[in-house]
Amino acid sequence: MSQKSELLFKITPKSGLTDAEVEQKRVEFGINELLEQRPVPLYRKIWHHLKDISSLVLLLAVVLATYMAIFQNGGWTKTIVISLILIINVVIGLYQEASAEKSLAALKAMSLPTAKGRRNGRDITLAASELVPGDLIYLNTGDQVPADAVIIEETNLTVDEAILTGESLAVSKTNFKAETNLTDDERIFSGTAVVGGSALAQVTAIGMATELGKIANLLNKTQKRQTPLQGKLDSLSKWMTLFAALGGVVIFSLSMGMQNKALADSLMIGLSLAVAAVPETLPIIVTISLSRGVKRMADRNAIIRHIGAVETIGNVDVIATDKTGTLTQNKMTITKYWTPETDIKKAADLPEAGQNLLKMLGLANDAKIMEKDGSKEVIGDATEIAIVNWLKTQGSSRQQLEEKAPRIAEDPFDSAKKMMTTVHRLPNGHLLVIAKGALDRLPLTQSKVIEAGQKAHDDLAAAALRVLAVGYKVLPEDADPTAWKEINSNLKLAGLIGLIDPPRPEVAAAIAKARQAGIKTVMITGDHLVTAKAIAEEIGILDSGQTAITGTELSEMSDAELKQSIQNISVYARVSPSDKIRIVQMWQELNKTVAMTGDGVNDAPALKAADVGIAMGVTGTEVAKEAADMILTDDNFATIIKAVAEGRTVYQNIIKAVEFLIGVNFAQIFLMVISTIFGWGAPLLAEQLLIINVLADGIPGFFISKEPSEPNIMAQDPIGNDESLLGRGLMQRMIIRAITFTILTLGVYAYGRFVISANNPQVGMTLVFLVLALGSMIDIYAIKDSQPISWQTFKTNKMLNWGLLLSMTLVISLTVLPHLRQFLHLTLLPIQGWLVVLFGSLIPIFILELNKRLTGNLQLNFENS
Ligand code: ADP
Ligand code: MG
Description:
- Keywords: ATP-binding, Magnesium, Membrane, Metal-binding, Nucleotide-binding, Translocase, Transmembrane, Transmembrane helix.
- Its main location: membrane.
- InterPro entries: ATPase_P-typ_cation-transptr_C, ATPase_P-typ_cation-transptr_N, ATPase_P-typ_cyto_dom_N, ATPase_P-typ_P_site, ATPase_P-typ_TM_dom_sf, ATPase_P-typ_transduc_dom_A_sf, ATPase_P-type_domA, HAD-like_sf.
- With 865 residues, the chain is α+β, with helices and mostly antiparallel strands.
- It is 51% helix and 17% strand.
- An 8-stranded mixed β-sheet has the order 8-24-23-22-9-19-21-20, with helices on both faces.
- Helix 15 runs parallel beside helix 18 (529-539).
- The radius of gyration is 34 Å and the shape is elongated.
- The two termini are 57 Å apart.
- The protein binds adenosine-5'-diphosphate and magnesium ion.
- The site of adenosine-5'-diphosphate has 20 residues, from helix 13, strand 15, strand 16 and strand 17.
């Protein structure tokens, strides 16, 4: 930013731009968007895939095979097969990457910011991307500034420009004085956050022409972070690769030493084993699973802003949620009121004495009527909308009231203060001060009235009503309307209103579900303790053994005390946004994963501190959304629980893919090494291993990412932060599977070579090829369902069935069709051999099922531990 800017602009009339002007400017200046990074060219992407370890090994194998074909008359089979596999690998990788990118782009489009502006003489809400220079925009606390602009009018406007300056502090801004020589104080910049006050501003620059646009290239360079799961998988893959390489080296030396095979042959088999054993499809499966999770969450109203949140939300231990609007409907209605003269009465029953209370509420009110997509709607805080609606039932309106007593100053609402004040000029010239807010926060003069008010307050709150108090006083004509210290003192109590905000109907069930899933739900609210408790009991948050505390009690607790009792606190009432951070941090110190909801500007730090920051899509400010990892498009608590289930499904599918891919890979290594030690030679040729790798591992593994949620997904405790990837029986299952396949394949090899045939290694090889490929494809059904297999197991993922059918048909045709068979050095089996294949392929699924039933009790124990 420059201190003085050369900027010169033409003032737009108060009615805003006309449609015709907007059109013309759009042609001239384009769209208000930061350009994405330049797309990566195709050759760079291909290179990226060739660079990974298994592609490099394959490439080496192609070179070796070509060498053997030319100089040792080895035939071109290997070269062709390996090249094809290499190409398939790269193409699949490119395709997956493209589809993951596409879904992420779609995601970005869903969380695009909006702006409030004025065009053709009307107030409108529009996509921020549609703004053009000259547009008039309204800015309020919590908005993200959508473009560079100069300030036309402002009240107490303060802005956080950290995104540009790196310093997070509130900077005050002022109206511009002249059209030339603007200072930075008179301008606001795209991407910065309004942290206080409000303004009317005129857009001066959009898109890449903004100050933010000028540094956008820097911002684009930020690296994407790995999720914990990706990290754990990465190190697992590294171990596997190391192990595969070791297996390759062992096989190479054994076949050189024991069998006196040619160097090239030995190298080839070593390389192939290494390729087959590296779980190269795993990273692809992780990416697909995550991006599929993102999409499924979006379908359920939860928009993920960082892909890692898909995983984290599945593992949350604690969800700290706002009450108003998230647990409740945010549809407030004033049902009762109290004044010193009337006592508690129903809202519909409004004698003269109650009218004054209503008028004051109407004056100290910020709800606006806006036009959106052609229809009128009342915009503002639900509390204030309730007041506007009450006014309407009495045939009155804000405008009518303000004509008689125009507002001349305001001290806006803020959830730390829990009150707001407005100052009005009465027809006789005197000033009327009206403050509305929490009864315990209004600066009232002590009196008998307050005692009665307090009693009425408690009665209303106990009925789960949100209570708002109104205080007032009249000042002489010449009083200073902005001397807030003076103004916010010695008020008289005008009355109270009680607003009902019913819980969302689906929330009680969602909380019960969360509890079953080992997740604690905590209510955080600015409302009074009594109101909060009444609602918490209604929806099942506050049950026996749990307590509710106030922000004051919270601040009196030391960290140690809080850590001790935090497990038993379910409700925090009358808290400020700054208390939220402390709650998050205390849970985190107990090594729990915490999700926290928020909507206001001052919630942003807590949203960032939480493991999953969740912003409200409807009532949330742009600033809160920016700080969040997830946005709820329906503001609904139940949506969070749906997202948890989706996150868990993604995690579980990835674990299933690990189980599927890695167990058999180990078996392949053992098989090759042991059989070589036995002096049987390689029971599978390089090209056979590689084909199994693609058809029996790659394709089915890919479809595991499409598995739907298991019904019991919300009946298990969350995965702990430091819980091993191989926990919950995974290690044991993989070992069982690896041993099963090793013994099985060695057995069928020996049977084929020595029993069915008279020492014909090709018969043994064909049996191993079929049993290994088919057996590992069939037992996917035991892996994909953590419960014992039932008919349901075969019905939940039709794509997988078709994929398996295709893979199995291909595998079988390779051993049946004459040309293919010869090409791969396989042989046609006698009927006896096919019987072995049939039974042999069913053994692994049988053993896995048996194991599931035997250890079933063990797994159930996890649910209660
Ligand atoms: P939450 O959103 O967590 O329910 P808030 O911080 O919005 O809590 O509100 C806390 C208290 O502030 C309410 O109990 C009420 O007394 C008061 N309050 C809420 N909204 C307004 C408003 N628009 N004007 C004045 N006071 C308000
Ligand atoms: Mg609120």
